[in-house]
Amino acid sequence: MSENSLPWHHRPAHIFSPEIMYMVTAGTYQKEHFFKGKERLEFLQQSLFDAAEAYLWELQAWAIFPNHYHFIAKSPENSSSLKSMIQRLHSQTAREANRLDN
């Protein structure tokens, strides 16, 4: 396996290359609508913006929904940071949704 191809828990294998576009889609557990309402959707969007900025991913387009999201972003030099960026996004937003839902 080359240095640009890392093992991933989904198939097919994800190939990581610097400075190319990636499309990412993720959904909530059991498609639950954890992000209903303007405030929660804005929180999810801002969390995506913050995570992308922290890991130097350049967002090109995004769509945020109560139970899933999509984004297209240009990868930084270290494109394998995608996993860490998504882990940050999901951890932060899950903690906030759990807090709001008690």
Global geometry = globular
- List how many beta strands DSSP finds: 5
Q: What value does the Rg take, in angstroms?
A: 14 Å
What summary fits the major beta sheet? Answer: 3 strands, antiparallel
Approximate helicity band:
25-40%
Mean pLDDT: 90
> Structural class, judged by helices and strands?
alpha+beta
The first-to-last residue Cα distance is 44 Å
Task: Give the strand order, joined by hyphens, for the main sheet.
Answer: 3-5-4
Task: Report strand %.
Answer: 15-25%
Q: Given the structure, what is the number of helices?
A: 2
N-to-C SSE string, H for helix and E for strand: EEEHEEH
Which regions have little confidence, pLDDT < 50, spanning 5+ residues? none
What is the fold's blueprint, element by element?
Blueprint: E1 5-6, E2 14-15, E3 21-27, H1 38-54, E4 58-64, E5 68-74, H2 82-100
Antiparallel strand pairs: 1-2, 3-5, 4-5
Helix pairs in contact: 1-2
Give a description of the structure.
The strands form 2 sheets. The protein has a 3-stranded antiparallel beta sheet, covered by helices on one side. It contains 2 helices and 5 strands, in the order βββαββα. A hairpin with a 3-residue loop joins strand 4 and strand 5. The chain has 102 residues and is an alpha+beta fold.
Short description:
The protein is of the alpha+beta class.
List keywords for this structure.
102 residues, alpha+beta, 3-stranded antiparallel β-sheet, two-stranded antiparallel sheet, 2 helices, 5 strands, 25% strand, globular
